[in-house]
Design a protein that fits this description.
It is a single chain. It is built from no helices and 5 strands. The strands form 2 sheets. A 3-stranded antiparallel sheet has the order 3-4-5, with no helix packed on it. With about 80 residues, the protein is mainly beta. The N and C termini lie far apart (about 40 Å). Strand 1 and strand 2 form a beta hairpin. The radius of gyration is 18 Å and the shape is elongated. The chain has one domain.
Length: about 80
């Protein structure tokens, strides 16, 4: 039988150092499935913005920066909606 190892549980101390759980990928527009790869906008050297294509989001059809978030975020593991 093969067991999966997910790291030490919260609050474990090894060699006098407290081990923290791994940090999850932030749920920002840049890693959302619905953040467009084809509808982009950059003004000068400012931040890149792209259109949100998620109909369930408050940001739907709005240009959002890579740092914005929303409750309708979805993983981009299979590429983007328009990619």
């Amino acid at each position: 039988m093969k067991l999966a190892y997910n790291g030490p549980p919260d609050g474990v101390t090894i060699g006098g150092k407290k081990i923290e759980p791994p940090v999850k990928k932030p749920r920002k527009c840049a890693n959302c499935y619905w953040w467009s790869q084809k509808i982009l906008w950059v003004v000068g050297i400012g931040p890149m913005k792209a259109m949100c294509l998620n109909k369930d989001s408050d940001n739907h059809q709005r240009m959002t920066s890579i740092r914005e978030t929303c409750d309708a975020w979805e993983t981009d593991k299979d590429g983007n909606a328009d990619g």
